[in-house]
Specification:
Largest sheet: 7 strands, mixed
Oligomer: single chain
Strand order of the largest sheet: 10-9-8-11-12-13-14
CATH architecture of the largest domain: 3-Layer(aba) Sandwich
Radius of gyration: 20 Å
Length: 313
């Protein structure tokens, strides 16, 4: 059955796509995906995909709008090439934070992206740690949401840090942080914070739980500007934490995130490669874990008609 499986990628994260193909033991599909001088994107699929089971690997990451358009145009090209089933593999779902109307006259862009992917030709979505659970319900096609929780927890299990407390960076992520705490057999603390308007700035208000004299492990789904991370690290140190580590699934690392992390007393920031981290954004404090095998196994199971949920049982 693997002979009927095809994996393609745009320009957002070809290294991850190749890692997935290496796990599956198949070559990466051949396609032209480039931008004309007028900024129009052109796609040409260079292999026969008629009635094939096709997967397109493309996180919606920087440059976000270009990555999104590449994905949409690739889906359309595959649909018009009579692919049997097209699965959009979106490790990082951009615009996922705009998932509800929390102010008057604002969009729900995460729902708009769902509509665009479906209209473009996706028959299925495969993603990792969506920012909000309700995004699954924005789709009328099947959605498989994987989690990097087990990859992150295994790393820290191997580290065997003593006297550890898991700290959710806000109340919204507390359920996933609780799951991590259970796997690490550690207590849970929560940082209560309030975001200021539409700017990327958050005010830390309070720490719920005891962190004094303990090693703290901050947990979030993504790190963007690292402003919240740095503020949280400072608050934990002020409340008596001896060391602070951090982990997340999606390393967005926009703006001055890397400089903030480098200047912060945080010991280590552990992330996955749902988003590529260029060399100019690397830092000795940052540890990158691969999710290629996680996505590769999920793709194999979807293609073979096996349970994806069984991967986490």
């Amino acid at each position: 059955m693997v002979d009927e499986l095809k994996v393609f990628t745009g320009n957002a994260h070809p290294v991850l796509a190749q890692g997935i193909c290496d796990y599956l033991g198949i070559p990466l599909g051949k396609a032209e995906v480039f931008e004309f001088s007028n900024e129009n994107i052109f796609v040409r699929i260079l292999e026969n995909v008629r009635e094939r089971d096709v997967f397109v690997i493309q996180p919606i990451c920087s440059p976000v709008n270009k990555s999104l358009m590449e994905l949409l145009i690739m889906l359309d090209a595959l649909k018009r090439a009579s692919a049997g089933r097209i699965t959009a593999v979106v490790p990082y779902y951009g615009y996922g934070r705009t998932d509800k109307k929390d102010q008057p006259r604002v969009p729900i862009t995460a729902r708009l992206i769902a509509d665009l992917l479906t209209v473009a030709g996706a028959n299925r979505l495969l993603s990792v740690d969506l920012h909000a659970a309700q995004i699954q319900g924005f789709f009328t096609i099947p959605v498989d949401e994987l989690t990097a929780l087990y990859i992150l927890s295994s790393y820290f299990e191997d580290r065997a840090l003593e006297n550890l407390v898991v700290v959710a960076t806000d109340i919204g992520i507390s359920k996933r942080a609780r799951d991590l705490a259970e796997r690490l057999n550690a207590p849970l603390a929560i940082i209560e914070k309030r975001r200021v308007g539409n700017i990327d700035k958050a005010e830390t208000l309070n720490i719920i739980g005891d962190v004094a004299g303990m090693r703290a492990l901050l947990f979030d789904d993504e790190i963007d500007t690292a402003g919240s991370l740095v503020t949280a690290v400072a608050a934990l140190m002020e409340n008596g934490a001896t060391e602070v580590y951090a982990c997340c699934t999606h390393p967005v690392f926009s703006d001055a995130a890397i400089k903030r992390i480098a200047a912060s007393p945080v010991k280590e920031v552990v992330v996955t490669d749902t988003i590529p981290i260029p060399k100019n954004k690397s830092n000795e404090k940052i540890t990158i874990l691969s999710i290629a095998s996680l996505l590769g196994e999920a793709i194999y199971r979807i293609h073979s008609g096996l349970s994806v949920g069984a991967m986490f049982e």
